[in-house]
Amino acid sequence: RDLLDFYVEAVKTRSYSDQEGELAQKLLAKMKELEYDEAYVDAAGNVCGRVGCGGKVIHFDSHMDTVLAENAAEWKHPPFAGEIEDGMLYGRGTDDDKGPVAAVLLAMKAVRDLKLPLTKNVRLIAGTDEETGFRDIKWYYGSHPYAPHTLSPDADFPIINLEKGHYQPTF
To answer: Which of 140, 162, 129, 138 is nearest to 49 (CA)?
Structure first.
């Protein structure tokens, strides 16, 4: 029930690009409640949490921001109501990317609680700018080393394990 409750609360929280502060604070509070080994918001607004230790690193790169909920009056379910109908949660960001964030958030804690031999340093990085340019992840990897193993649980999680790419030429 903890996963569903957090997921619904995340969907109810408006988090357009550059307006993720409220959701970031909720995610940070949840990491602390779940007793992550480390949890903080960095200078770019990314919420970063770590479970485990060890020399090898695994990153789950995700994001909290959503595109605008245009034409909200035409939606069958209001975009920020977090309504459940016939076992489905409806709202802006349910697939991209609040559901995957919630799943990874709780999965990391479950692995530790089950006392599985976690020999990796597993990090969840919930970014703030996936929908409009990746400034958040650029900042993060400009300040931290790249992880040799990175998964991007985005949209149709758990199928996608890497992004197609993003091209923004500067002339």
So the answer is: 140
